[in-house]
Design brief:
By secondary structure, this protein is of the alpha+beta class. The protein is 24% helix and 28% strand. The protein has six helices and 14 strands. The radius of gyration is 19 Å and the shape is globular.
Length: 300
Amino acid sequence: MTASGRFFCADAAEARGDPITGTAPYGVVWVLVEYRGGWPPNGFDGLDLDPATKARVYGAAREARARVLLVRRHGRRTPEGPPRWAVLRYDRRGAHRQRWGTWSRDEDLAEIAGALGAPGEPGLPPVVLVCAHGRHDTCCAVRGRPVARALSDRWPDLVWECTHVGGDRFAGNLVVAPDGVYYGRLDAGSSVEAVGEHLSGRVHAAHLRGYTDLFPPQQAAVAAVLGRFGPAGRHDYAVARTSRVDDHWSIRVTGRHAGGPEAFEVEVRSHRTPPRQLTCHGPQLSAALVYEVISVRVAP
């Protein structure tokens, strides 16, 4: 709570020390729709589009388990050309694929359904999506837009502002897609450092929320290995085995990190926090599930 009595969820989470590791939502396919007008609180679902087209896009996205995000360039008053759309697809071998198009009429967005069923083009640079969805959560705008500004100044062709990506209290949030990497609790300076390192093939544990192809305890395990042994490429580590007994996970992480060990045993324990207000606009109290790394050891 600020001196003015206004609640900011990211400030509260930072003051409590809420851990960010293991908080990346699962997903390997993203649909981006550039929309230059105001964003409704519920994003794409709230747009006044042709109902049949919207239903077709949503149906295809559900089938592909894709997340639909509205995007826009930061601070550009007169964008060039028609709005764009994209389908971004993660590949566990690193051969990520993308398909891009443009739309001028609502009906043009129906092409997204076909793109969701096609492989897409490999070898394109990743997209940096910065959550700046102020109508969904105040902290996303307050903390996200300075991040979007700093990153857009450095990589104008890669960076987009986007609608809600999850984890409002970890703002500023960004997703590198289709790499499938979530970073959180960023400001202008730390975001430029994190993205610069990411684009150079080095993922650091600092600010890492998780890899979106892994489940929360696995995300926490990989982040712990990165924190102990240093940054590594997005696909340098993989989860080879996961076992669970009640609230305790044993996770084997294997790696190709040059000069380091090749396998690790990571112990993770989960617990729920006391009920708290987790978003700016949601006054109801909710308990969060936290994944705590108990130990990391080099496997024999």
